[in-house]
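Lab notebook, design round three. We kept the backbone fixed and only want residue identities now. Task for the bench partner: fill in a sequence for the structure below.
Input structure tokens:
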């Protein structure tokens, strides 16, 4: 197993209440993003990979332990845990939260409701729902797309339990959900990826958008439902949908977001890996990257220095007989991927400045 190095010299939000840090944790192939505020922490998804080479659970556990050691003031509390949808690469680490010693306290849970019986990550989602039901005072929302009534999305004390404003200092981040479970009986809505909770986090002028694994049909239905005002999608940092898959980033969506930085939570691709890996899927895919590199609406900032990165042209065939295909590009724009960059931390100040640390 390859060890994820411990964070060192990471910018912390403690000292400066006008700062937040989004930690895109390298859990291999899967999503896990920890939002660090001066008075609170939020975890979006609990991925990751579970192959002979990578244990997403171990990596998540180590990262959280290191985090809570550094931020002892948070008393091992996650003010909110969001599970975007019940697939294993997003829910596999729920056990890390529920089995932690000493306990990790989860105060609020947002997911997309009861998982389908055969959902690969249904167990994690159900376990967290049981925790929320059994522990008094834990807030829970199972969000359907139909619960979202306005173009600013849905919010509540459970979806947005964080307020770090104290007198004249600190910031009250605004957290809202822009999408959730789709209760339509259409083929695309039966794909759990399209039922992903989409989360928007505005920290002063810095806006982060987390899209779960929403695929193209879900993206276009979502944009259509916000046709009156697409402003909620205008973001500085985009967590790219579905690990940079070929079918989860569209031109319309990128135009609505116009990101300054994009982050892809795909694993390092190694031919040794098994079925559910960045290697097998060919992630991140050239098609998504090309859209993110669009000169008008794509990622506007540059990386600190260009990097030669591995880009998927296609995934392995369904029967496994044809291997995936990759190429190499020199990435100059501020597109980051855990498989290229290891752990990724983006520090944002409330006046909208962004800085990125990788490979720590
Ligand atoms: Zn996924």
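Proposed sequence:
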């Amino acid at each position: 197993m390859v060890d994820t190095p411990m964070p060192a010299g990471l910018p912390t939000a403690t000292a400066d209440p006008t700062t937040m840090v989004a930690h895109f944790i390298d859990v291999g192939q899967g999503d896990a993003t920890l939002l660090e505020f001066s008075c609170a922490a939020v975890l979006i998804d609990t991925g990751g990979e579970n192959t002979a080479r990578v244990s997403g659970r171990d990596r998540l556990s180590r990262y959280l332990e290191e985090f809570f050691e550094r931020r002892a003031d948070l008393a091992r509390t996650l003010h909110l845990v969001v599970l975007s949808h019940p697939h294993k690469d997003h829910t596999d680490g729920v056990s890390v939260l529920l089995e932690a010693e000493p306990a990790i306290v989860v105060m609020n849970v947002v997911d997309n409701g009861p998982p389908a019986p055969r959902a690969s990550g249904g167990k994690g989602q159900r376990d967290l729902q049981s925790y929320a039901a059994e522990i008094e005072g834990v807030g829970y929302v199972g969000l359907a797309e139909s619960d979202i009534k306005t173009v600013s999305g849905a919010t509540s004390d459970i979806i947005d339990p964080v307020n770090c404003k104290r007198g004249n200092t600190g910031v009250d981040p605004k957290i809202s959900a822009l999408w959730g479970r789709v209760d339509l009986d259409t083929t695309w809505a039966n794909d759990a990826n399209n039922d992903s909770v989409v989360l928007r986090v505005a920290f002063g002028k810095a806006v982060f958008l987390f899209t779960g694994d929403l695929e193209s049909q879900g993206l276009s239905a979502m944009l259509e439902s916000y046709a009156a005002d697409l402003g909620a999608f205008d973001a500085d940092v985009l967590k790219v949908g579905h690990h940079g898959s070929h079918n989860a980033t569209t031109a319309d969506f990128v135009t609505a977001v116009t990101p300054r930085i994009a982050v892809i939570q795909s694993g390092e691709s190694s031919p040794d890996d098994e079925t559910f890996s960045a290697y097998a899927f060919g992630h991140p895919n050239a098609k998504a990257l090309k859209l993110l590199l669009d000169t008008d609406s794509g990622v506007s900032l540059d990386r600190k220095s260009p990097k030669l990165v591995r880009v998927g042209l296609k995934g392995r065939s369904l029967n496994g007989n044809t291997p995936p295909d990759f190429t190499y590009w020199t990435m100059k724009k501020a597109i980051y991927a855990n498989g290229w960059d290891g752990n990724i931390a983006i520090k944002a100040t409330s006046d909208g400045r962004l800085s990125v640390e990788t490979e720590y």
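Keep this in mind before ordering anything: The first helix runs from residue 56 to 70.
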